[in-house]
Design a protein that fits this description.
Layout: H1 3-24, H2 30-53, H3 85-109, H4 113-145
Helix pairs in contact: 1-2, 1-3, 3-4
Amino acid sequence: MNILEFAINMEKEGETFYRSLAKGNNDNALVTVFLALAEDEKHHARIVTEFLKDDRIVLPNGDLPKSSGVFKEHFVNDIKQMPEQLDAYREALKKEQESIALYKKLMEDAKNLIEKNMFGYLIEQEESHFSTIENIIFHLEKAESWVESAEFGVREDY
C-alpha cells in the first residue's frame, strides 16, 4: 500500500468516526457539525482517490498498514451515560491533532513533490477542522464558565 492509499483509508476512517459521533448526538445540534465534518472527510478521500487514479502518477508501495489507528478508538465515557457536547468536541479535537501529526510525518517521508503537495493539502484541511472545533470549544467553555454579572465588570469580547 502506498502512502496515498493509506491517506484514503485514514480519511474514510475519519468519515466513519464523525458519522458515529453524529449518530450518538442525533437529538442535539452536534449532529450537524459532525455530519459536516464527515462529509469533509469523504470529500478528502474522493480527492486523493481521483489524484491517485491519474495514470501519469506512479507511487511506490510502502510497508504502511491499512489503518492509521487514529480514528479506531471510538469515544467512550465511563463516567457519564451520554457524553456532554464539550466531551465530544474535545475527542474530535484530539483526533484532528493526531491526524495532523500523522500527515506531517507522512509528508516528511514522502518521496516526491506530488506526495508532499497532497499531504500539504490534507494537513491544511485537517488544520481547518482543528480550528473550527477549537473555536466551538472556546465558545462553549466561555458560556459554561462565565459567571460574572452582565451588569458589572469588564468582560472580554468574544
